[in-house]
Amino acid sequence: MSHSMPVAPREADLNPDRFHFRVARRFLDAYFSNIHHIQPLFEEEVFLARCEDLWFNRPGKQPLSFVALYYATLSLGSLVMTFENPEIYGADRFTWSRKLFNDALAVVIRLGTATDAEMVQCFYMMSKICQHELNPHVAYLYSGQAARTSLAIGINRSPISLDAADPRASTAASKTWWAVYCLDIQTSFALGRPDSLGPDQYHTQYLPTATSGASISSPHVLQIVPCMVGLSRIMRKVALDLYTQPCEMEQQLHRAKALDAQLEHWLEQVPSHLRSEHQSGSDLCLKPRRLASYTKKQSVVLRLRYLNLRMVIHAVFMIDAKTARSEEAAFLRECQCRCIQSAEGAIDLMYSTFCTDDYFQTWWYNSTYTLFAVSILLAVVFRQLARTQQALKNLFAHIDRAIVVLEAMDDCLVARNAAAIIKRTLARARKVPQPALVAQQSSSSQDADLNGALRPPVNAEHQTESDNVDILLQSHAMDGDDLGENVGDLDWLSTYPFDDTQQALFWTEWAHEIDTLGT
């Protein structure tokens, strides 16, 4: 299954301080109590027992690939740890994470073309680190390496004979393969690039199952795995059917309808305790805190990814319905409504979770979900699709809320810069005329004049923010020259996904805009 692996150097060749014993357990605890629950990869006790070989001067018992995995896991744990103080042992989370990542990378380079399960898991961890650092291109490279190494050692397939000694038959192999499967689809989907997995017919590996009798009243952490795999498969179909294969509007609508139905069916199959809408203050129960903690983490992530995928399915139709045929216009508006509702729902979910859970504010990848949701709402404004004043107020309110979410992650430079970009964009968005609202106001004005009704004078001292928006919309309604300036440097925002270009354009241009702001 794997090449002969070199073991870690003995004590004479390796300084024990290199394993960072003083901080290691804190970073590992942060990982296992936090992000581990979203895609369970290890048995915690087994992993910690292997770490003890390194800590207590027994490194020769572990292959060198495990040392690389160890450092990578510490790096991710540092990145998602909620520090009580800005620094731990003289360095902040980013410094520790980068140092540990470089330690892992040094071992990987030393190993060369080694292939075993630990290397797969190490590449997986390195991809997750880059994903949370908001470096999607490098995350894509490492997830591809994890996938290719998995295929090379064959853990994507269950063994033909029931041989307990075959590593492919282990629960560890199953958990590792499906974690890599989900991550590689997610990273490739975010960039609009092909994944490294090949057809699903190749993958006969069983889904990992709970080791004890799990039920709704006693859920197991592994119950999230089938949910993640099912969502990843729909994600793959969305990328291929809507954004890779060009087709006419009628066929696009048909595909979107089918994909939306599949997504709703997936949601119905999610265990009830993993649906975030069932987690409310009125449903309090006296369960162990650890169980409630990871269940909530899993339910929030599943709901957030569901909303994000629903946005992607319908975002391709964020165009003026008046340009479509009459039989298509109604469904176009329905798709737009679903897309907007999902964007607002994603922002509301993140905001409410941020209010109650500090750990969620260290998951920097939330910035991508936030920015995508905001891009949907800003596109509605810039494409002049708002139809009622209340709808426009809701759009602006949710964009404001998204800015609050990003500002809560102020430890992350990218999140801070993204918030600055959105603030600047929002100021311009408030000046964009909305023809549908102007026509609506004009019609109301004519009706009032016909009835002899008089409008009350505007009292500047008592104007609300929404009143100011109304005045801005009216004062700029006929100023066509302003619109080009309003859109200006937001071409990157309106290009994807509101035409048939691939997702790579959105992320590439977004990263370029972030880099430009930071220089």
Features:
mainly alpha; 3 domains; disordered N terminus
Largest sheet: none
Helix content: 55-70%
Q: Report the portion of residues in β strands.
A: under 5%
**Unreliable residue stretches:** 1-5, 10-16, 212-217, 278-284, 286-291, 444-504, 514-519
The average pLDDT is 78
Keywords: Membrane, Nucleus, Transcription, Transcription regulation, Transmembrane, Transmembrane helix
Domain Xylanolytic transcriptional activator regulatory: 139-214
Protein name: Xylanolytic transcriptional activator regulatory domain-containing protein
Transmembrane segments: 363-382
Could you explain the architecture of this structure?
The structure is a single chain. The chain is mainly α and 519 residues long. It has three domains: 11-159 and 166-202, no CATH class; 235-269 and 293-315 and 324-355, no CATH class; 362-445 and 464-519. Helix content is 62%, strand content 0%. It contains 19 helices and no strands. It has helices at residues 21-32, 44-55, 64-79, 93-111, 117-132, 136-153, 171-191, 224-244, 249-269, 289-315, 326-356, 366-382, 389-408, 413-429, 435-450, 465-475, 480-487, 491-495, 503-518. Helix 7 packs parallel to helix 8, helix 13 runs antiparallel to helix 14 (413-429) and helix 14 crosses helix 19. Residues 1-5, 10-16, 212-217, 278-284, 286-291, 444-504 and 514-519 have low confidence and may be disordered.
In short:
This protein is an all-alpha fold and 519 residues long. It has helices at 21-32, 44-55, 64-79, 93-111, 117-132, 136-153, 171-191, 224-244, 249-269, 289-315, 326-356, 366-382, 389-408, 413-429, 435-450, 465-475, 480-487, 491-495, 503-518.
